[in-house]
Amino acid sequence: MKKISLALLLAISTLSFQACSSKKTETTDSVENADSANEAKEEAGTGQDDDTNEFAVKAANGGMLEVELGRMAEEKAASKDVKDFGAMMVKDHSKANDELKAIAATHNITLPTTLGEDEQEHVNEMAKLSGAEFDKKYVSMMVDDHKKDIDLFKKAVDDTETNAAVKDFASKTLPTLQKHMDAINAIDKKMK
User: Fold this and answer.
1) How many Å apart are CA 1 and CA 4, to the nearest integer?
2) How many domains does the chain fold into?
């Protein structure tokens, strides 16, 4: 009887441990969930390759961040230049986000529906700032983000494995990102 009880206790403990550890792998991070969904589709032969999925998820997440921070800039910035730049971010990145969503729907790519946890932390941090302090941080963040965005989009254009529709989107969006980079660099120089 002791052996049966011990074996039963061990089995229950093992199942409880497995249930707990499987809960830990579930996430509320929309970016991670999109990555997982795309990986499953790729493995099933119904999705796109890793490079295409990775680009699409990063571009969507970055685009949502630009829109959210652009809205904040319109409200919280002290400088008219920064407010105007924020408005341009909302307009241009909303348009690009919509185009990417249409491509993703057509090509079975799952995109994040909300900001990833890291990007949400940036938004939360920026929400605490206003005026000149906001302007300085926002401009610095936009310079860094647009450098990364341009590199990401160029890589997608140059990658022979990237889905043709996604590659076309990246190619078409690059001049807009460069325009943003030029504008934010000019604002940055004025502020110094």
Assistant:
1) 5
2) 1
